[in-house]
């Protein structure tokens, strides 16, 4: 109220000082003694409320009839500021101007605001300086598209598996934007063990006990209905020491065959992966060996392969796959033993006993890493390792003969013989590794095949 009174006082003062003469005897409130009925000025239209994004230009219109010698002024209510009077700009704000449309019967006074700012919002009054001032209002709403303040928001993070991570996003705008979080591959966000969500609302998000599965890019998306919606991509890297999984720890291969050994690793950052013999010397690619490391999905998984060509007696023994990264190191052992060449008979399959090996002691700490590999469906068949069909069997015949002789009186032979076996009688004292080959008549088939 006092604001309004101030306006009126200011307004009248301005009219007096701006040299505008008025024939109205408004100060006394008595009309001039005349028979002519002078029509009072009147507004002919309401002021439209306007919503405008910051930065635009806007004009507010105030339409009046019978203005006569009265004047129209524009004011900003909340700022208690007189902006314009008649054709004059009173405010020092250079973005304000006033025009009016002379040709229209109902004169329209336009208040122009260029490059609208948030502080321009509020109630605009159009006032006529009649005895009792006539006033009408219009609202200017200034909206500001959302903006993410980088300096107050999280940037890419690298954390250790198992730690808690808080990501923040500070968004400004008018109206106040809402912030939503998503993963950029649209997978669920694991807030904690019991809460998985596709979307999370809030300026920050805390992921407790982060796992490697939580690794990836997160998007914070700020929106307030004013386009454009903005987003920030925050990459979360989860570091952990390497882990190994070996599908076949025992691999049998006949002399002169080729064979492939395999290890699966998980590590972040990416581990240095290599193979060694028992002497610890790194195996390099050569005529004898070819190493392969294929990055899987997700990228912290790697499939390591060691191809060994034309197996010689000295090639039997142990091999190690090694994975190292700045968080730690691990290795796993694969034993290569002599086996008999495959048969073409579909007869009883050879079986191989192996156990899944977890060489990493932190297995229980991994929230859903390598255990995916478990399932016992891995082909542990002999043919999975020995695929070559053109080996030189002839030179291997002696070995086969020996094994035949040993096994003639039994349906189960152990090859190579193993004294460590506890529940099945071993026949010799030579100790190698644990492999059982169940055979009956196929031994003969095998012998026949190898003669071809
Ligand atoms: C104002 O008064 C003057 C003299 O007093 C007169 O000449 C003029 O016509 C009047 N103007 C109006 C708009 O009444
Ligand atoms: C402008 O908005 C105000 C309140 O926000 C409302 O009372 C008024 O009727 C609106 N005017 C128009 C022309 O829509
Ligand atoms: C992580 O958050 C959980 C739950 O809020 C808390 O119990 C735990 O102590 C936190 N761990 C660390 C390393 O701060
Ligand atoms: C998981 O997070 C939600 C949201 O922060 C919380 O309400 C809930 O208690 C948490 N659950 C556990 C088991 O920590
Ligand atoms: C893993 O957890 C199981 C059950 O909680 C426990 O029996 C086992 O000893 C743990 N293994 C390791 C390597 O900590
Ligand atoms: C072993 O692999 C090499 C190269 O791929 C091939 O030339 C050779 O024939 C293979 N040997 C056997 C016995 O299959
Ligand atoms: C040997 O294998 C044949 C065919 O695979 C089978 O019918 C037979 O029962 C087996 N003999 C023994 C003793 O297991």
UniProtKB/TrEMBL annotation:
<keyword id="KW-0732">Signal</keyword>
<dbReference type="InterPro" id="IPR013098">
    <property type="entry name" value="Ig_I-set"/>
</dbReference>
<keyword id="KW-0677">Repeat</keyword>
<dbReference type="InterPro" id="IPR036179">
    <property type="entry name" value="Ig-like_dom_sf"/>
</dbReference>
<dbReference type="GO" id="GO:0043005">
    <property type="term" value="C:neuron projection"/>
</dbReference>
<feature type="domain" description="Ig-like">
    <location>
        <begin position="41"/>
        <end position="136"/>
    </location>
</feature>
<protein>
    <recommendedName>
        <fullName>Ig-like domain-containing protein</fullName>
    </recommendedName>
</protein>
<feature type="region of interest" description="Disordered">
    <location>
        <begin position="332"/>
        <end position="388"/>
    </location>
</feature>
<keyword id="KW-0393">Immunoglobulin domain</keyword>
<dbReference type="InterPro" id="IPR051170">
    <property type="entry name" value="Neural/epithelial_adhesion"/>
</dbReference>
<keyword id="KW-1015">Disulfide bond</keyword>
<dbReference type="InterPro" id="IPR003599">
    <property type="entry name" value="Ig_sub"/>
</dbReference>
<keyword id="KW-0325">Glycoprotein</keyword>
<dbReference type="InterPro" id="IPR013783">
    <property type="entry name" value="Ig-like_fold"/>
</dbReference>
<dbReference type="Pfam" id="PF13927">
    <property type="entry name" value="Ig_3"/>
</dbReference>
<feature type="compositionally biased region" description="Polar residues">
    <location>
        <begin position="352"/>
        <end position="365"/>
    </location>
</feature>
<feature type="domain" description="Ig-like">
    <location>
        <begin position="146"/>
        <end position="237"/>
    </location>
</feature>
<dbReference type="Pfam" id="PF07679">
    <property type="entry name" value="I-set"/>
</dbReference>
<dbReference type="GO" id="GO:0005886">
    <property type="term" value="C:plasma membrane"/>
</dbReference>
<feature type="domain" description="Ig-like">
    <location>
        <begin position="241"/>
        <end position="335"/>
    </location>
</feature>
<feature type="signal peptide">
    <location>
        <begin position="1"/>
        <end position="22"/>
    </location>
</feature>
<dbReference type="InterPro" id="IPR007110">
    <property type="entry name" value="Ig-like_dom"/>
</dbReference>
<keyword id="KW-0472">Membrane</keyword>
<keyword id="KW-1003">Cell membrane</keyword>
<dbReference type="InterPro" id="IPR003598">
    <property type="entry name" value="Ig_sub2"/>
</dbReference>
């Amino acid at each position: 109220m006092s604001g309004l009174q101030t306006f009126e006082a200011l307004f009248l003062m301005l009219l007096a000082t701006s040299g505008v003469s008025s024939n109205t005897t408004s100060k006394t409130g008595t009309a001039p003694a005349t028979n002519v009925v002078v029509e009072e000025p009147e507004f002919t239209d309401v002021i439209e409320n306007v919503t405008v994004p910051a930065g635009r230009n806007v004009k507010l219109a105030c339409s009046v009839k019978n203005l006569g010698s009265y004047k129209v002024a524009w004011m900003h209510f909340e700022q208690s500021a007189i902006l314009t009077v008649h054709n004059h700009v009173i405010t020092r704000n250079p973005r304000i101007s006033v025009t009016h449309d002379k040709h229209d019967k109902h004169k329209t006074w336009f208040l122009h605001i260029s490059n609208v700012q948030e502080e321009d919002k509020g109630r605009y009054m159009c006032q006529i300086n009649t005895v009792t001032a006539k006033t009408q209002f219009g609202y200017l709403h200034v909206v500001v598209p959302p903006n993410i303040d980088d300096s107050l928001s999280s940037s890419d993070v690298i954390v250790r598996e198992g730690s808690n991570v808080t990501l923040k996003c500070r968004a400004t705008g008018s109206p106040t934007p809402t912030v939503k979080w998503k993963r950029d591959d649209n997978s669920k966000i694991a807030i904690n063990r019991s809460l998985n969500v596709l979307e999370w609302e809030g300026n920050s998000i805390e992921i407790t006990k982060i796992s490697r599965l939580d690794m990836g890019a997160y998007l914070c998306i700020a929106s307030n209905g004013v386009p454009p919606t903005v987003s920030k991509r925050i990459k979360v890297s989860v570091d952990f020491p390497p882990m190994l999984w070996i599908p076949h720890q025992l691999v049998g291969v006949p002399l002169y065959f080729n064979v492939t050994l395999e290890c699966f690793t998980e590590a972040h950052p990416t581990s240095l992966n290599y193979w060694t013999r028992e002497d610890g010397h790194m195996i390099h690619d050569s005529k004898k060996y070819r190493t392969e490391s294929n990055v899987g999905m997700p990228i912290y998984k790697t499939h390591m392969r060691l191809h060994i060509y034309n197996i010689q007696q000295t090639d039997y023994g142990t091999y190690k796959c090694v994975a190292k990264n700045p968080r730690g190191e691990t290795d796993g052992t694969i034993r290569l033993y002599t086996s008999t060449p495959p048969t073409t008979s579909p007869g009883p399959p050879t079986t191989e006993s192996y156990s899944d090996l977890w060489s990493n002691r932190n297995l229980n700490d991994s929230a859903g890493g390598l255990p995916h590999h478990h399932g016992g469906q891995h082909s542990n068949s002999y043919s999975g390792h020995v695929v070559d069909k053109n080996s030189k069997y002839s030179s291997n015949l002696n070995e086969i003969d020996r094994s035949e002789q040993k096994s003639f009186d039994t349906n189960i032979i152990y090859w190579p013989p193993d004294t460590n076996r506890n529940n099945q009688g071993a026949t010799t004292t030579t100790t190698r590794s644990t492999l059982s080959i169940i055979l009956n008549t196929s031994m003969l088939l095998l012998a026949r095949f190898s003669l071809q």
